[in-house]
């Protein structure tokens, strides 16, 4: 009976040592994933804001191409007359 108890203690000690090693590995993986997320979130936000700004500039250029200076001057004069 004592031999069975001794073997179970040896098994438990080996098992807990292995569980401890696995939990350390898992925690390191989680820490690495957290660091990756913390670094990548601001980068993706900057990329998205840059795309929004860039598209705004593109559409501003396209909008200015469609309007001649004369028609813009006429519109500005009409707006000034309405405000008077």
TrEMBL record:
<dbReference type="GO" id="GO:0005886">
    <property type="term" value="C:plasma membrane"/>
</dbReference>
<protein>
    <recommendedName>
        <fullName>Multidrug efflux pump accessory protein AcrZ</fullName>
    </recommendedName>
</protein>
<dbReference type="InterPro" id="IPR019702">
    <property type="entry name" value="AcrZ"/>
</dbReference>
<keyword id="KW-1003">Cell membrane</keyword>
<feature type="transmembrane region" description="Helical">
    <location>
        <begin position="30"/>
        <end position="53"/>
    </location>
</feature>
<keyword id="KW-0813">Transport</keyword>
<comment type="function">
    <text>AcrA-AcrB-AcrZ-TolC is a drug efflux protein complex with a broad substrate specificity. This protein binds to AcrB and is required for efflux of some but not all substrates, suggesting it may influence the specificity of drug export.</text>
</comment>
<dbReference type="GO" id="GO:0042910">
    <property type="term" value="F:xenobiotic transmembrane transporter activity"/>
</dbReference>
<keyword id="KW-0046">Antibiotic resistance</keyword>
<keyword id="KW-0472">Membrane</keyword>
<dbReference type="GO" id="GO:0046677">
    <property type="term" value="P:response to antibiotic"/>
</dbReference>
<comment type="subunit">
    <text>Part of the AcrA-AcrB-AcrZ-TolC efflux pump, interacts directly with AcrB.</text>
</comment>
<dbReference type="GO" id="GO:1990961">
    <property type="term" value="P:xenobiotic detoxification by transmembrane export across the plasma membrane"/>
</dbReference>
<dbReference type="Pfam" id="PF10766">
    <property type="entry name" value="AcrZ"/>
</dbReference>
<keyword id="KW-0812">Transmembrane</keyword>
<keyword id="KW-1133">Transmembrane helix</keyword>
<comment type="similarity">
    <text>Belongs to the AcrZ family.</text>
</comment>
<dbReference type="InterPro" id="IPR053730">
    <property type="entry name" value="MEP_Accessory_AcrZ"/>
</dbReference>
